[in-house]
Amino acid sequence: GQPITNSAERLKQGAELYFPSVRLADSGIYVCTCRDQRSTNRSHAEIIVEGGPAKPIVVTVEEPKSQTMRVGSTVNFICTAKSKSPAYTLVWTRRGIGRLPNRATDFK
Questions:
Q1: Where are the domains of the chain?
Q2: What is the DSSP letter of 51?
Q3: Which residues pair with 21 in a beta bridge?
Q4: In this structure, are strands 40-47 and 28-35 parallel, antiparallel, or unpaired?
Q5: Is residue 55 within 8 Å of 86, Cβ to Cβ?
Q6: Residue from 65, 23, 66, 71 nearest 47 by CA
Q7: What is the model's pTM?
Q8: Which of 80, 24, 29, 84 minimizes the C-alpha distance to 56?
Q9: pLDDT tens per residue across span 20-53
Q10: What digits encode the pLDDT tens for the residues 72-108?
Q11: What topology is assigned to 55-108 in CATH?
């Protein structure tokens, strides 16, 4: 990801992220990653700063959002978006992994 902004301070050896005065530029998702000799895991937090120019984007996954399937079955999810900007992209990723499994297709 991107380096932490100057308005953020890392405390307690990186375990706590502190913003003394939030700015519009601080909006975003911050990822805390822990690595040891055997594995890596991460969690995230999001800052949404109000009071700036509104750029609302509405993203919806159509129902059913959760499907229990048998091995070998076919599954399909549809994601739609509404944005004030005519140029936007929709991309599927898998949480915790990022990329989709080789068997999954992202139709654009």
A1: 9-47, 55-108
A2: S
A3: none
A4: antiparallel
A5: no
A6: 23
A7: 0.43
A8: 84
A9: 888 877 888 888 887 788 888 888 888 887 776 6
A10: 888 888 888 888 777 777 777 777 777 666 655 656 5
A11: Immunoglobulin-like (2.60.40)
Give the residues across from 46 on adjacent strands.
29
Cis peptide before 3 (omega within 30 of 0): no
Candidates 23, 40, 42; CA nearest to 32 is: 42
- In the block, tokens 């999954």 appear at 104
Quote the Cα angle for 35-32-30, to 5°. Answer: 150
Q: What is the token pair recorded at 103? A: 């068997």
Q: What is the DSSP letter of 95?
A: T
d(CA 26, CA 56): 17
